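step: validate -> pass
step: tokenize input -> pass
step: predict -> running
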Amino acid sequence: MAKPINSYDLFRELNTADIYNKISRPIIIADDIRTPENMGSIIRLGANIGALSIFFISKKANTFKKFKIIKTASGAANKVKWQIVENYDVALAKIPDDYSIIAIETSEDSSDIFDYSLPEKVVFVLGNEVLGISSGILEKINIRLHIPVPGLISSLNVAHALSVAIFEWFRQIRPKQNNK
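step: predict -> pass
step: emit ->
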């Protein structure tokens, strides 16, 4: 009888890591995240997708106990570049010019993420768990996308929203790369 395949072996057989050698890497900017647990989850997601960089805009993040961030990141904190910066302009200065910046934010002028053709070179900007992306940052971003949530609670946890956005991007970009 054949030995059952565990998920680790299955992922190795699927060669998903080979895909990352063929695509651009997304960048993540998170504005004023309130908890070290959400920071850790964002770092882990960044590592899952092979993010180029993650920037946390925050004055209070430096007061978080770093072990809480790292514990939640589950080993990913050493596998992806992440840093805490004081403002959006500092993060923006570190982004290549050919990347498109997209706010994941529900607003009057946002479009449904599932109806939008996402660019290969992308920066996802996420906001505070309660207040969203600050108005000063949001007014600097031309592309605003929302995730349609049909249930009784109309918002997602910031890390969950990032998961949806990143894997929608990956779903869209992967077929384009496989045809090359």
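step: describe -> The CA atoms of residues 99 and 121 lie 5 Å apart.
step: cleanup -> pass
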